[in-house]
Amino acid sequence: MVELRKRREAPSDALQPPQKKSASSTKAQTEAVSTKAAPTSANGADKAEKLTVGHFIHLEGFGGEVETQDGETTNLKTLVDESKNGVVLFTYPKASTPGCTTQACLFRDEFTPLTATGYSIFGLSSDSRKSNTTFKTKQNLPYTLLCDPSATLITAIGMRKAPKGIVRGVFVVSKAGKVEAVEPGGPASTVEVVRGLVKGAGVSSGENVGKTVEAEEVQKDDGSDKGETQDAPKEDTDGNQAEVAAEVADTAEKLDR
Questions:
Q1: Residues 59, 79, 89, 100: which is the catalytic one?
Q2: β-pairing, 160-161 with 179-184?
Q3: How far apart are CA 135 and CA 65, in angstroms?
Q4: What is the pLDDT of residues 56-83, one digit of tens each?
Q5: E-strand spans in the chain?
Q6: 14, 94, 210, 239: least CB-packed within 10 angstroms?
Q7: Active-site annotation holds for 105
Q8: Which helix (H) or strand (E) holds 100?
Q9: In angstroms, rounded to a whole number, what is the distance separating the alpha carbons of residues 230 and 236?
Q10: Model-level pTM?
């Protein structure tokens, strides 16, 4: 006699079809992934924008936050707001190295003339507060040094060198956010860029002063010429009167005889 065995029933879970993800759930996950992957540049744009002279930048949030050598947190907008006419940022690769020392000392030696038109000067690097404090103290620098270890501001102004180096250069921005200079260069050339901006502002004033002085000199010359012209007839009148008086005297003398 053959014994029939009963088949085992499949688990109930195996018979159920897999659940489909809702469209809203899939869309939410896609947006989350795309948001996480989307890069954000240091200057606040979705794509890093190359700055050029004459370009206006939105100062709010530009370049993120940096620290001074004293540990005070600040940003470019605050620096510009506190300045009289704008901000000069000169970038240097590493504090206390020969080239950077030369550059910092050149800005130190010309600090007074370079700030004559209202610019505020700052050194900018990725150095630590300790390194920049030592650098500032040893070289007796009259301006603040900014520490940007993550290089957010350095990148925003176009002075970042891949993969994590820093380009020596200078960046100048006005109170209105207008880029007046953005140029890489050696220690002396970075100072020369700022000197040229200051000299350019001074030339206009000098020309006006020159024209004023020239006008005053012309006016003086005209006045003296008029004076000489006015004095001449007076001398002639006196001479005529003297001649008339002499003739009267001669006539009277003849009558007396």
A1: 100
A2: unpaired
A3: 21
A4: 999 999 999 999 999 999 999 999 999 9
A5: 65-68, 73-75, 86-91, 119-125, 144-147, 160-161, 165-166, 169-174, 179-184
A6: 14
A7: no
A8: helix 98-109
A9: 11
A10: 0.64
